[in-house]
Design goal:
about 375 residues, mainly alpha, about 0% strand
């Protein structure tokens, strides 16, 4: 285990700073620096300025800001924590697969905070598997308050516990999750602006230009690019609006809800640990591939559970498809991101291919989960 951790550290330090996977021309360091200065000046997030993340994201932004070295070391620490959790969940195959995280994801692992919720999520799942549901769901609550997506994984974990007959454990976990979320959220609600500012920000922003919905809009035509340098807005990203954007967004959102609900239902009917892990991976894939925003750094949410999926029957194909999608992302991000913004055909096509790979990974995960033993056919493991 320690050798794999050392390998991850070496690969991280080398591949994210040197060679073909080290590009960082487009990153979130400026945004973090700007928010860091506002916080240092005494501004209150949500109330005094738009803040698009939940409150726990303030921790790395407030402490580190836009320091490239500081954020890289912090996210390396998160990657190591995720690797140890992967060892716990999937053994050596999963732990060693995490060594490939830096080159497969690219240098964005060190210029974005997305490995923080990913690490909290994987450790939370490991604790649930080890029959510590309150601690596990509490960590999923922390992950939710860093980026919202772990809330869906908490639903999977609770449904899985109920399906196994562990209703008391599910209740304890639900209470722990709620306590953590409220403890972090209520103070900001009392100060004003939370969660309404964050919710309004995400409801108002257009379909992000790299999302699956945007791929559909590119095929249909009639939509226009938003965001700098094309058309300034306040959302710090590029999107598409006009044409069939409203309809396409509604349909992909509906598909996302249906996919998440279906995966939660499948997890509830299957008592094995593999079902919990596959359903959690599938829910993350559904949220990433079908939501209105698909930022490149979201591969940080996907690759740690993909490493675990390698050790699960039926998980190798979706894991491989996810890794391929992450590598395809590097064709345009970050070095050629503005080829997407300016609608160059090759870049728009590459985005579409990446999105199809993620959707294929989602279908493969759901299929593997549906084939896993049902409750009536398999007793819960001891």
């Amino acid at each position: 285990m320690l050798l794999s951790v050392a390998a991850l550290v070496v690969v991280w330090l080398v591949s994210t700073h040197h060679g073909p996977f080290s590009g960082d021309a487009v990153n979130d360091l400026y945004v973090y620096s700007f928010d860091h200065r506002l916080l240092a000046d005494g501004a209150v997030p949500y109330r005094d300025f738009d803040f698009e993340y939940p409150p726990l994201a303030l921790l790395p932004i407030g402490l580190i800001g836009g320091s490239a070295v500081g954020l890289s070391l912090a996210m390396l620490g998160c990657a190591i924590v995720a690797q140890l959790a992967a060892w716990s969940l999937g053994g050596a195959a999963a732990g060693w697969a995490m060594v490939a995280l830096p080159p497969v994801a690219g240098a964005l692992v060190r210029t974005h905070i997305d490995l923080l919720p990913a690490a909290l999520t994987l450790v939370g799942l490991a604790l649930v598997v080890r029959r510590r549901p309150a601690s596990g769901l509490a960590l999923l609550g922390l992950g939710t308050m860093a980026k919202l997506y772990p809330a869906a994984i908490a639903l999977v974990a609770l449904a899985w516990l109920v399906g196994r007959g562990d209703r008391r454990a599910a209740l304890q976990g639900a209470v722990a999750f709620a306590v953590v979320v409220l403890a972090l959220g209520v103070p900001f609600a009392a100060l004003g602006g939370f969660p309404s500012t964050m919710v309004r920000f995400h409801l108002d922003r257009p379909v992000q230009i790299e999302s699956s919905a945007a791929t559909v809009l590119e095929v249909l035509g009639g939509s226009a690019v938003t965001g700098d340098p094309i058309r300034h807005d306040r959302f710090k990203s590029n999107g598409l609006d006009g044409g069939a954007a409203g309809l396409v967004l509604a349909l992909t959102t509906l598909l996302s809800v249906v996919a998440v609900a279906g995966l939660v239902a499948l997890a509830a009917r299957r008592p094995r640990t593999d079902a919990l892990l596959l359903a959690s991976f599938g829910v993350t894939l559904a949220l990433v591939s079908l939501s209105k925003v698909l930022s490149p750094q979201y591969v940080c949410w996907l690759l740690p559970p993909a490493a675990v999926a390698l050790a699960i029957p039926g998980g190798r194909l979706p894991a491989a498809l996810t890794a391929a999608a992450a590598l395809v992302t590097q064709l345009w991000f970050p070095s050629h991101y503005f080829d997407v913004v300016f609608q160059h055909a090759w870049a728009v096509t590459a985005v579409g291919v990446r999105n199809l790979l993620l959707l294929a990974a989602l279908v493969a995960t759901a299929r593997a989960l549906a084939r896993s033993p049902r409750r009536a056919a398999a007793a819960p493991p001891p």
